[in-house]
Amino acid sequence: MIIIVTGTDTGVGKTVATAALAARSGPGTIVVKPVQTGIGIGTDEPDISVVARLTGCEVAEFTRLEDPLAPDTAARLRGIEIPPISEHTARVRELARTHDTVIVEGAGGILVRLDADGGTLPDLAVELARDHPVQVYVVTRVGLGTLNHTELTVNTLRSRGLEPAGLVLGAVPKALGLAEECNITELPRVTGVPIVAALPDGVGGLDPEHFQTQVDSFCVRHNTPKSAKCSQLWCAREINGNTNARSCSVVRT
Fold first, then answer.
1. 246 lies in some domain
2. Structural domain of 181
3. Which of 17, 80, 131, 193 has a Cα at 20 to 30 A from 243?
4. Which CATH number fits the domain that encloses residue 48?
5. Strand pairing class (29-36; 134-140)
6. Any known ligand binding at 56?
7. CA-wise closest residue to 28 among 60, 62, 57
8. Residues 239 and 250 sit within 8 Å (Cβ to Cβ)
9. Residue 108 assigned to a binding site
10. How many CB atoms lie within 10 A of CB 21?
11. Per-residue pLDDT tens for 4-53?
């Protein structure tokens, strides 16, 4: 199985979502970051290091670039030639031969260019899907603007023949305002994609033991049915099934 994790933007919680998926996938899992940018002095902990710290699973990083920019831009700024999507595809395929699950985390949003020829994460997913089962998860915010960003991301995937397996809500605040409550109701309605996980804000700061024991409560699971229950946040059945936009109701448990 190959799992692709993309997002509606940078900073939406892709890395923590990737870690949660990895923790649930069990032994035989490797997490891959085809291109990591922003590894210069003074920058945040690299994404792949966050995943390794939270899960202890095997990780791989194909290309590292110093500046916190889109990969193509960061490479051109430094005069560096970066591998094409075809090379990333070949390396992921090779890893899929020796691992039960390969989880690939993208960079930034869905159409961020990963090579000098304009190759993107959907290009990688399409090629991998030719000979492997592929699931794609979209990580998104719950705040203002998310309906537009999420629908654009989902439509981009569908235009390439890729049907998202689910939406993951990243960095969900403890206190929800009207916009957040309505967006949780509206996201499945406008995209036609179920919410399969809700990751509380700050969960990436947990120690590995607590992170791994709480993963089930985040409802990150492969092929999660719409009736699944998010025990500590909301009832997923209500989140995904409520199409009454006027009520914007969220069931807290």
1. no
2. 2-241
3. 17
4. 3.40.50.300
5. unpaired
6. no
7. 57
8. yes
9. yes
10. 28
11. 999 999 999 999 999 999 998 988 999 999 999 998 766 577 888 999 99
Kindly state the tokens that stand for 9: 């933007």
Q: Which two tokens stand for residue 79?
A: 């005069």
Determine if residue 55 is labeled as part of a ligand binding site: no
Residue 230's pLDDT band (boundaries 50, 70, 90)? very low
Which tens digit of pLDDT belongs to each residue from 153-212?
999 999 999 999 999 999 999 899 999 999 999 999 999 999 999 999 999 999 989 998
Identify the pLDDT of residue 2. Answer: 98
Q: What is the rounded distance in angstroms from the CA atom of residue 70 to the CA atom of residue 10?
A: 10
User: Domains in the chain: how many in total?
Assistant: 1
Q: Is 19 helix (H, G, I), strand (E, B) or coil?
A: helix
Q: How many whole angstroms separate alpha carbon 74 and alpha carbon 218? A: 34
* Best CA proximity match to 133, nearest among 111, 162, 159: 162
Residue 250 forms part of a structural domain: no
pLDDT (0 to 100) of residue 219: 62
- pLDDT number for residue 213: 86
The reported pLDDT for the residue numbered 218 is 78
Query: Would the annotation count 59 as a binding residue?
Result: no
Tokens of 127: 């090629």
229: annotated active-site residue = no
In a domain, 247, yes or no: no
Q: Is residue 253 part of a domain?
A: no
14 is in an annotated binding site: yes
Which of 33, 174, 226, 229 is catalytic? The answer is: 33
Number of H helices, E strands in the chain: 9, 7
